[in-house]
Amino acid sequence: MSEPLHADSRIEARPAEGDLSDRDAYLQQVMLDALSYARQRNYTGYDYFDGMSSRLLRALPVENKWLNIAVQESIKRAPVNVRPLFLVEQRRNFKGSALFTMANETAYQLTGDRTYLDQARHLADWLVDEQSEDFAGFCGGHRHQMQQLRELRPANTPNVVPTSYGVKSLLRMATYDDDYGETAHTAERFVVDELDYTELDGGARIVYQPLFDGDFYTLNGGAVGARLLVDLYDHFGADRHLNRARQLLDYIATKQAAVGGWAYRDPPSASHLSMDNHHNGFIVESYQRYHEVAGDQRYEETLDRALSFYRDLLFEADGAPNWDERRSYPRDIHAATQGIIVFSKAGDFEFVRRIVDWVLANLYAGEGQFYYQQRRFYTKRFTLMRWCQAWMAYALSVYFEERYGGGGT
Q1: Distances in whole angstroms, Cα of residue 7 to Cα of each of 3, 11, 234, 400, 406
Q2: Does the structure show a pLDDT above 90 at 363?
Q3: Beta partners for 141?
Q4: Which terminus of the chain, N or C, has fewer Cβ atoms within 10 Å?
């Protein structure tokens, strides 16, 4: 089933059979098992914020914001998975599909097994077909309605984060078909037009999603939007992409706290979240990506402080992820996976292995299945397809790209 790698392989030193350490051979199998778990279920499953897809809720003869919030939040916060009781629909997630695309493509690079490339193509085609409609450029969002205090957000409302991963995955697949890259390129219009790219003193900022009417800015969203533009620059070489990314990152750098991290929103009072783990990881990774592509060290001091904060306050010495700079619990698999990504890109593979070991000891069910979250006195032993499976498969794929190659898109 194997064949030579594509001529543009990123895994510069593809490990031959027997060349991997026993440890890395095991981790590669865990990654492949995680992909197998998802493939057997057609990449469809429960999601973090899917309570509004309850068929029981939708069958009620009333439409009430507070009832929606009660059902949605009860499902999200329950210590066990009550989604089957509420008849919550299992759907394929846009961001999760992008992550699975990249993890499958890396699996192909590592193994030469064309099954993984075929899966990556299938998922990339799905992303193109299922992009959000009636917005400028390529974009995507979550597949479930979300009830928020201000509004009921329709399913498939695009925002910057799933769009950025969709772009990253299509640019990866452009190695095999240029049409994927051309589709990804149109996402520039989404960032500039739909997300209200605005220059101001100290840089530029964007909103998190179209039709936004709030008085705050989501900082990790701005960073991820900058990374999207850096990815476009890396692929197409247009200076405007890098210039706009630099403006966004300049602004976010001014919002870095003295301790080295970032609040979820600007102003911080606009969110109940503090300097939580995986959103800070998104920002750190965005600065890493800028340095990787731009060839300068414009944000060296910002990144050094951020990495120190991220490691010292958002992780324990044994690799366990903390929730934020003040609280250890809940210890979330998404925080762990983002740590794997960031420290892989930093070349700190020893610490990556500590995080992986913690996940395998505390949130791994075996046979490629991962659990959601460890609380102080119990563990949420259920699986969310995007939050658990997609992120873990992708994080391990990044580890192998950085460990054995020059890194991916």
Answers
A1: 12, 11, 19, 18, 15
A2: yes
A3: 158
A4: N
- Kindly state the tokens that stand for 380: 């949420």
Q: Closest Cα to residue 309, out of 287, 330, 329, 292?
A: 287
Q: What tokens appear for 180 in the block? A: 């994927």
Q: How far is the C-alpha of 37 from the C-alpha of 25, rounded, in Å?
A: 18
Measured CA distances, 205 to 6, 217, 288 (Å): 38, 8, 19
Query: What CA–CA distance (Å, rounded) separates 32 from 53?
Result: 30
Q: Looking at residues 303-309, what average pLDDT do you find?
A: 98
Phi, psi of 146 (to 5 degrees): -130, 125
**Residue 217 has what DSSP assignment?**
E
328-360 burial, b if ≥16 CB within 10 A, otherwise e? eebbbbbbbbbbbbbbbbbebeebbbbbbebbe
pTM for this one?
0.94
Q: Which residue's entry shows tokens 């220059």?
A: 199
**Using omega within 30 degrees of 0 as the cis cutoff, is the peptide bond preceding 267 cis?**
yes
Q: Say whether 245 sits in a helix, a strand or coil.
A: helix
Quickly state the pLDDT bin for 406 (edges 50, 70, 90): low
| CB atoms near residue 18 (< 10 Å) | 6
- What whole-number distance in Å separates Cα of residue 398 and Cα of residue 394? 6
The whole-angstrom separation of Cα 141 and Cα 57 is 22
The strand ranges marked E within 315-368 are: 331-332, 364-366
Cα gap 206→191, rounded to integer Å: 8
Span 21-28, mean pLDDT? 91
CA-to-CA dists, residue 40 to 293, 347, 369, angstroms:
36, 33, 12
Write the single-letter amino acid at 116.
Y
DSSP bridge pairs for 45: 91
pLDDT given at position 1 = 32
Q: What is the residue whose two structure tokens read 């610490």? A: 351
